[in-house]
Amino acid sequence: MALQSTIAISTITLQTISSIVTFSSIPNIYRDLILIISGTAAPSGEKYFNLYLNGDTGANYSRVEMTGTPSSGTFANLIPITLISSNQGSCILTIFDYAQTNKHKTALYRNNTLNTAATPIAGTARWTNTTAISSLTIDGFSGAQLNAGTTISLYGRIA
Predict the structure, then answer these.
(1) What is the per-residue pLDDT across 101-119, written as a single tens digit (0 to 9) for each?
(2) How many angstroms separate the CA atoms of 98 and 136, rounded?
(3) Distance between CA atoms of 87 and 26, rounded to whole angstroms?
(4) Model confidence pLDDT, tens digit, residues 6-60
(5) Would you state the pLDDT for residue 14?
(6) pLDDT tens digits for 62-71?
(7) I need a labelling partner for 12 at 20 to 30 A (CA). Which of 46, 49, 51, 90 fits?
(8) Is the peptide bond before 43 cis (omega within 30 degrees of 0)?
(9) Residues 151, 63: Cα–Cα separation, whole Å
């Protein structure tokens, strides 16, 4: 079994509060992408963020998730990221075979936030598109924003 190497593509540390962060012009030289978000959300309370691939905000996403308690909420079938304002939290998301043009894109994610309600903890998502991923956009849901000091890192993994 070959060892895997992880290469840093880009890291953004927010200097001000922001509701949208985009990584664009992602090179297609890696096998997988790993997105790591570490920080807090604003304003207060639990906040959710959607991840859009190549700017696609349509209904081309599906997911299955595990939560701490049963949930009836939805994220409009987008890949969810959860942070809470009062607790430092993180989300780790891996997108497999992102540069392939012959398959849908699949992802595994885990939100490592000390939550107080039924928020997604772990799940899998699928983007029903065969286009290679060249950009990722993190967008606040219902007014959610990322606080200054939040770090968002994108890595490429070579198999």
Answers:
(1) 999 999 998 887 655 554 5
(2) 11
(3) 30
(4) 999 999 999 999 989 999 999 999 999 999 998 888 776 667 788 899 999 888 8
(5) 95
(6) 887 776 654 4
(7) 46
(8) yes
(9) 25
- Chain CA centroid to CA 39, Å: 13
Q: Which residues are 123's β-sheet partners?
A: 65, 109
Q: How many residues does the chain have?
A: 159
Q: SS3 breakdown of the chain: % helix, strand, coil, rounded to 5? A: 0, 55, 45
Residue showing tokens 């928020």: 119
What residues contact 74, with CB distance under 8 A and at least 6 apart?
A: none
Is residue 88's pLDDT more than 80? Answer: no
Encoded tokens for 138: 């993190």
d(CA 10, CA 143): 26
Among 85, 89, 87, CA closest to 37: 89
- List the structure tokens of 87: 């607790």
pTM: 0.85
User: For residue 152, what are its two tokens?
Assistant: 């968002």
What beta strand segments (E) does the chain contain?
A: 5-13, 20-23, 32-39, 41-42, 46-53, 61-67, 79-84, 89-96, 105-111, 120-127, 136-140, 145-146, 151-158
